[in-house]
Amino acid sequence: MPVIVVANPKGGVGKSTLSTNLAGYFASRGHGVLLGDTDRQQSARAWLNIRPPAAPPIATWEISEDYIAKPPKGTTHVVLDTPAGLHGWRLNDVLKLADKVVVPLQPSIFDILATQDFLRRLAEEKAVRQGDIDVGIVGMRVDARTRSADQLHRFIEGLNLPVLSYLRDTQNYVQLAAHGLTLWDIAPSRVQRDIEQWQPIIAWVDGKNATALAATDADPAGQGG
After folding, report:
1. Residue 216 belongs to a domain
2. What is the 3-state secondary structure (H, E, C) of the chain?
3. What are the beta bridge partners of residue 96?
4. Which CDD domains does UniProt cross-reference here (predicted)?
5. Burial class (CB in 10 A: 0-12, 13-18, 19+), 24
6. Is residue 84 in a domain?
7. What CATH number is attached to the domain comprising 140?
8. Is 178 inside a domain boundary?
Protein backbone atom coordinates (compact mmCIF):
# COMPACT_ATOMS: atom_id res chain seq x y z
CA MET A 1 0.00 0.00 0.00
CA PRO A 2 1.92 3.07 -1.20
CA VAL A 3 1.81 6.17 1.00
CA ILE A 4 2.42 9.41 -0.89
CA VAL A 5 3.23 12.41 1.28
CA VAL A 6 2.80 15.94 -0.08
CA ALA A 7 5.05 18.24 1.92
CA ASN A 8 6.63 21.68 2.01
CA PRO A 9 7.21 23.74 5.17
CA LYS A 10 6.11 26.87 3.29
CA GLY A 11 2.39 27.52 3.40
CA GLY A 12 0.25 28.36 0.39
CA VAL A 13 2.33 26.50 -2.18
CA GLY A 14 -0.36 24.13 -3.43
CA LYS A 15 -0.07 21.11 -1.13
CA SER A 16 -3.83 20.60 -0.87
CA THR A 17 -4.24 21.02 -4.63
CA LEU A 18 -1.71 18.27 -5.26
CA SER A 19 -3.05 16.04 -2.49
CA THR A 20 -6.69 16.18 -3.53
CA ASN A 21 -5.93 15.68 -7.21
CA LEU A 22 -3.62 12.75 -6.49
CA ALA A 23 -6.35 11.15 -4.40
CA GLY A 24 -8.86 11.93 -7.15
CA TYR A 25 -6.66 10.23 -9.74
CA PHE A 26 -6.39 7.03 -7.69
CA ALA A 27 -10.12 7.05 -6.99
CA SER A 28 -10.91 7.49 -10.68
CA ARG A 29 -8.96 4.29 -11.36
CA GLY A 30 -11.10 2.36 -8.90
CA HIS A 31 -8.49 2.18 -6.13
CA GLY A 32 -9.39 2.22 -2.45
CA VAL A 33 -7.81 5.55 -1.53
CA LEU A 34 -7.47 7.36 1.78
CA LEU A 35 -6.75 11.09 2.04
CA GLY A 36 -5.10 12.04 5.33
CA ASP A 37 -4.54 15.55 6.65
CA THR A 38 -2.11 16.42 9.44
CA ASP A 39 -2.71 20.15 9.06
CA ARG A 40 -4.67 21.77 11.91
CA GLN A 41 -6.70 23.66 9.32
CA GLN A 42 -7.91 20.30 7.95
CA SER A 43 -8.28 21.66 4.41
CA ALA A 44 -8.35 18.20 2.86
CA ARG A 45 -11.02 16.98 5.28
CA ALA A 46 -13.15 20.06 4.58
CA TRP A 47 -12.79 19.35 0.86
CA LEU A 48 -13.93 15.76 1.35
CA ASN A 49 -17.01 17.02 3.16
CA ILE A 50 -18.20 18.83 0.03
CA ARG A 51 -17.27 16.06 -2.40
CA PRO A 52 -20.39 14.90 -4.31
CA PRO A 53 -21.68 11.43 -3.40
CA ALA A 54 -21.66 10.47 -7.09
CA ALA A 55 -17.92 11.12 -7.42
CA PRO A 56 -15.48 8.20 -7.04
CA PRO A 57 -15.14 7.66 -3.28
CA ILE A 58 -12.20 8.95 -1.27
CA ALA A 59 -12.10 8.03 2.41
CA THR A 60 -10.63 10.03 5.27
CA TRP A 61 -7.54 8.71 7.01
CA GLU A 62 -7.82 9.45 10.71
CA ILE A 63 -4.36 10.74 11.53
CA SER A 64 -3.02 13.30 13.98
CA GLU A 65 0.06 13.99 16.08
CA ASP A 66 -1.13 11.49 18.68
CA TYR A 67 -3.13 8.94 16.71
CA ILE A 68 -2.89 7.10 13.39
CA ALA A 69 -5.86 4.91 12.54
CA LYS A 70 -5.24 1.60 10.84
CA PRO A 71 -6.29 1.86 7.18
CA PRO A 72 -9.49 -0.12 6.58
CA LYS A 73 -9.50 -3.33 4.62
CA GLY A 74 -9.49 -2.70 0.88
CA THR A 75 -7.27 0.39 1.06
CA THR A 76 -4.71 0.32 -1.74
CA HIS A 77 -3.36 3.89 -1.82
CA VAL A 78 -2.85 6.65 0.76
CA VAL A 79 -2.23 10.35 0.12
CA LEU A 80 -1.15 12.46 3.09
CA ASP A 81 -1.42 16.26 3.13
CA THR A 82 0.91 17.96 5.60
CA PRO A 83 0.99 21.34 7.37
CA ALA A 84 3.20 24.34 6.90
CA GLY A 85 6.18 24.39 9.22
CA LEU A 86 6.73 20.64 8.97
CA HIS A 87 10.10 19.88 10.54
CA GLY A 88 11.85 18.08 13.39
CA TRP A 89 10.19 15.05 14.95
CA ARG A 90 6.93 15.68 13.06
CA LEU A 91 8.80 15.42 9.78
CA ASN A 92 10.53 12.28 11.01
CA ASP A 93 7.19 10.69 11.90
CA VAL A 94 5.75 11.52 8.48
CA LEU A 95 8.79 10.12 6.68
CA LYS A 96 8.39 6.84 8.56
CA LEU A 97 5.04 6.44 6.78
CA ALA A 98 6.15 7.60 3.34
CA ASP A 99 7.00 5.65 0.21
CA LYS A 100 7.11 8.79 -1.91
CA VAL A 101 7.32 12.50 -1.09
CA VAL A 102 6.03 15.13 -3.51
CA VAL A 103 7.23 18.69 -2.89
CA PRO A 104 5.21 21.50 -4.53
CA LEU A 105 7.30 24.59 -5.18
CA GLN A 106 6.24 27.98 -6.54
CA PRO A 107 8.44 30.35 -8.57
CA SER A 108 8.81 32.92 -5.82
CA ILE A 109 12.11 33.83 -4.18
CA PHE A 110 10.37 33.59 -0.79
CA ASP A 111 9.10 30.09 -1.54
CA ILE A 112 12.50 29.03 -2.84
CA LEU A 113 14.35 30.36 0.20
CA ALA A 114 11.81 28.78 2.57
CA THR A 115 12.09 25.41 0.83
CA GLN A 116 15.78 25.00 0.03
CA ASP A 117 16.80 23.78 3.50
CA PHE A 118 13.85 21.37 3.55
CA LEU A 119 14.88 19.89 0.19
CA ARG A 120 18.47 19.50 1.35
CA ARG A 121 17.19 17.81 4.51
CA LEU A 122 15.17 15.38 2.41
CA ALA A 123 18.08 14.68 0.07
CA GLU A 124 20.28 13.83 3.08
CA GLU A 125 17.74 11.40 4.59
CA LYS A 126 19.16 7.88 4.77
CA ALA A 127 15.94 6.37 3.42
CA VAL A 128 16.06 8.78 0.46
CA ARG A 129 19.73 8.10 -0.27
CA GLN A 130 19.11 4.35 -0.12
CA GLY A 131 16.13 4.58 -2.43
CA ASP A 132 13.55 3.52 0.16
CA ILE A 133 11.76 6.87 -0.24
CA ASP A 134 11.43 8.63 -3.59
CA VAL A 135 11.30 12.44 -3.64
CA GLY A 136 9.98 14.49 -6.55
CA ILE A 137 9.39 18.21 -7.10
CA VAL A 138 6.40 19.77 -8.85
CA GLY A 139 6.58 23.39 -10.00
CA MET A 140 3.26 25.04 -9.12
CA ARG A 141 1.52 27.96 -10.82
CA VAL A 142 4.41 28.43 -13.21
CA ASP A 143 4.11 31.04 -15.95
CA ALA A 144 7.03 30.54 -18.33
CA ARG A 145 6.89 34.19 -19.39
CA THR A 146 8.12 35.47 -16.03
CA ARG A 147 11.59 35.89 -14.61
CA SER A 148 10.49 34.04 -11.50
CA ALA A 149 9.97 30.91 -13.61
CA ASP A 150 13.55 31.14 -14.85
CA GLN A 151 14.67 31.63 -11.26
CA LEU A 152 12.84 28.49 -10.15
CA HIS A 153 14.34 26.54 -13.04
CA ARG A 154 17.88 27.63 -12.11
CA PHE A 155 17.32 26.73 -8.46
CA ILE A 156 16.02 23.25 -9.27
CA GLU A 157 18.98 22.61 -11.57
CA GLY A 158 21.19 22.70 -8.49
CA LEU A 159 19.31 19.90 -6.71
CA ASN A 160 19.87 16.19 -7.08
CA LEU A 161 16.12 15.60 -7.13
CA PRO A 162 13.82 15.01 -10.10
CA VAL A 163 11.35 17.59 -11.34
CA LEU A 164 8.18 15.70 -12.17
CA SER A 165 6.31 18.47 -13.97
CA TYR A 166 5.38 22.14 -14.03
CA LEU A 167 1.68 22.90 -13.48
CA ARG A 168 0.30 26.09 -14.93
CA ASP A 169 -1.59 28.78 -13.04
CA THR A 170 -5.24 28.15 -13.88
CA GLN A 171 -8.64 28.65 -12.26
CA ASN A 172 -9.54 25.05 -13.09
CA TYR A 173 -8.09 23.83 -9.80
CA VAL A 174 -9.83 26.54 -7.78
CA GLN A 175 -13.22 26.02 -9.40
CA LEU A 176 -13.11 22.24 -9.13
CA ALA A 177 -11.95 22.31 -5.50
CA ALA A 178 -14.90 24.56 -4.63
CA HIS A 179 -17.18 21.66 -5.59
CA GLY A 180 -15.13 18.87 -4.03
CA LEU A 181 -13.91 17.73 -7.44
CA THR A 182 -10.61 17.04 -9.20
CA LEU A 183 -9.35 17.01 -12.77
CA TRP A 184 -10.32 13.34 -12.98
CA ASP A 185 -13.98 13.90 -12.08
CA ILE A 186 -15.02 15.83 -15.19
CA ALA A 187 -14.81 15.36 -18.94
CA PRO A 188 -11.11 15.22 -19.96
CA SER A 189 -11.78 17.60 -22.85
CA ARG A 190 -12.49 20.38 -20.34
CA VAL A 191 -9.08 20.09 -18.66
CA GLN A 192 -6.99 18.43 -21.36
CA ARG A 193 -4.05 20.78 -21.00
CA ASP A 194 -3.86 20.23 -17.26
CA ILE A 195 -4.16 16.44 -17.53
CA GLU A 196 -1.27 16.46 -20.01
CA GLN A 197 0.88 18.26 -17.45
CA TRP A 198 -0.03 15.60 -14.88
CA GLN A 199 1.15 12.65 -16.97
CA PRO A 200 4.78 12.61 -15.66
CA ILE A 201 3.48 12.87 -12.09
CA ILE A 202 1.12 9.96 -12.64
CA ALA A 203 3.85 7.84 -14.18
CA TRP A 204 6.07 8.54 -11.18
CA VAL A 205 3.49 7.80 -8.47
CA ASP A 206 2.39 4.67 -10.31
CA GLY A 207 6.00 3.52 -10.44
CA LYS A 208 5.92 2.97 -14.18
CA ASN A 209 9.07 2.82 -16.26
CA ALA A 210 8.89 6.44 -17.22
CA THR A 211 11.80 8.63 -16.19
CA ALA A 212 10.75 11.74 -14.31
CA LEU A 213 11.76 14.94 -15.99
CA ALA A 214 15.25 15.91 -14.90
CA ALA A 215 15.81 19.47 -13.89
CA THR A 216 17.92 20.09 -16.96
CA ASP A 217 15.21 18.73 -19.24
CA ALA A 218 12.07 20.06 -17.56
CA ASP A 219 11.74 23.33 -19.44
CA PRO A 220 8.74 25.26 -18.14
CA ALA A 221 8.30 26.86 -21.58
CA GLY A 222 5.01 25.73 -22.99
CA GLN A 223 3.93 24.35 -19.63
CA GLY A 224 2.75 27.46 -17.94
CA GLY A 225 1.50 29.92 -20.51
Report:
1. no
2. CCEEEECCCCCCCCHHHHHHHHHHHHHHCCCCEEEEECCCCCHHHHHHHCCCCCCCCCEEECECCCCECCCCCCCCEEEEECCCCCCHHHHHHHHHHCCEEEEEECCCHHHHHHHHHHHHHHHHCHHHHCCCCEEEEEEECCCCCCHHHHHHHHHHHCCCCCEEEEECCCHHHHHHHCCCCCHHHCCHHHCHHHHHHHHHHHHHHCCCCCCCCCCCCCCCCCCCC
3. none
4. ParAB_family
5. buried
6. yes
7. 3.40.50.300
8. yes
- Vertex 48, ends 56 and 62: CA angle to 5°? 105
Residue 213 lies in a domain: no
Q: Would you give per-residue pLDDT tens digits along the chain (225 residues)?
A: 889 999 998 888 889 999 999 999 999 999 999 998 776 666 788 899 999 999 999 988 776 655 566 677 778 999 988 877 666 557 777 888 889 999 999 888 888 888 888 888 888 888 888 889 999 999 998 876 777 777 777 887 777 788 888 899 999 999 999 999 999 999 999 999 999 999 999 999 998 643 433 333 344 444 443
**Cα-Cα-Cα-Cα dihedral sign, residues 32, 6, 53, 188:** negative
- In 3D space, the residue among 172, 174, 162 whose CA is nearest the CA of residue 200 turns out to be 162
Structural domain for 139, as ranges? 3-205
Q: How many domains does the chain divide into?
A: 1
- Relative to beta strand 100-105, strand 77-81 is unpaired
